[in-house]
Amino acid sequence: MLKTFPKGGVHPAENKLSASRPIEVLPLPEQVSIPIAQHIGAPATPVVAKGDSVRVGQLIAKSNGFVSANIHSSVSGVVESLDPILDSTGYKKPAITIKVEGDEWMEGIDRTADVKKEISLSSEELIVKINEAGIVGLGGATFPSHVKLAVPKGKKVDVLIINGVECEPYLTSDHRLMLEKADELMVGIMVLKKVLGAERALIGIENNKRDAIAHLKNVSTGYPGIEVYPLRVKYPQGGEKQLIKALIKREVPSGGLPIDVGTVVHNVGTTLAVYEAVQKGKPLVERIVTITGKGVKNPGNYLVRIGTPISKLIEAAGGLPEDVGKVVNGGPMMGKAINSVEAPVTKGTSGVILFPSKESLRGEAQPSCIRCGKCVSACPMGLEPYLLNQLAQRRLYDRMEPERVVDCMECGSCSFVCPANLPLLDYIRLGKTEVFAMIRARKS
Fold this sequence. Notes:
This protein is an alpha/beta fold. The protein has 14 helices and 18 strands. The chain has helices at residues 123-132, 145-148, 173-180, 182-196, 210-220, 240-248, 268-280, 310-316, 357-360, 374-378, 385-393, 397-400, 413-417, 424-443; strands spanning 23-25, 31-35, 45-46, 53-54, 59-62, 71-72, 77-81, 84-86, 92-100, 159-163, 200-206, 226-231, 263-267, 286-292, 300-305, 324-329, 336-337, 351-356. β8 and β9 (92-100) form a beta hairpin. It is globular and about 60 Å long.
């Protein structure tokens, strides 16, 4: 019987339209705009000025604290400005805009296709390399990877979990990565195992990617301590806590972290970036992005330089269909609609989905909750979304904290199943933000 998490979950239509499309390299744009805050934590501090010439892989913004990440130029050219730009949230954020002139890379970056398997650095040196390369979680959370790998005193990691689930509908970038970069992925896992001192590494993949499961099972035989597990298809299986429960039956406590139960979880894209940083000397300057949608002429998976306008991805896929009603950055469950296709691809951009008008509109919300309990059954965290929604609407934020709103992973399962079409997640997000503000104020 296939493994899965026991509590909640939903089954949205998969729509993996681009699963059979090999990774293509997106041509360089005329210019890129690289935000200095593409990660959870403090924004990086620019170390270049207007008029400076830069090369691919050059540090252009330095991390500002432990929970922060370096930013590197994804192109070679001249810095045009350090002014705020509209990002995918619709707000202006500080960024470094570079006019592209050629494609000259920094010395020391190995761009050959040869897979370098021997890991010569110590665990401490490996963390330094990962930190310097500006690697963050590429599954969408964008948490700085070197922070995750710094195991606190008194804690021990015995199992490393690699997230190849890709449970969001439409997205296929991780699927293609596992098929086309299997050996590099395995070496990246060996690097992470060495850093953490973990004896085992488990790769979890949903069973709708049987070709990737078979391929990685075959390739993993050459790498000790790596196991591949097929998982039952159920959203949001890619959530850290859900994946841990599915694979090793450990329960991360409320408010706790995976390290509290002896494990660390990394996405397959992050693991590939770790391999490239450590073994090839390559900072995080590009990532694989899915561009897809039911009306898209050529849905596909592209290797894209960070800072490239999303419009360039859309052009490569055949342009905007006439009936597009919404462009979503990320998956349809947790992604967010963007108001400009000129917003840049960032480290956290896993996919771009073009939704037709009919599928872009929310159903008309009923006047109130009908008390059916479907949201409670669907919540993978065991919360009561209907109650959190009501508390948020009434601004009773002090009551939301004991109801564990901070445990909400914002997966959208509650809104997905609500027959009254209530915007449950919208209000829960609002309340969660207020509760976190209360907690910060209390600590200060």
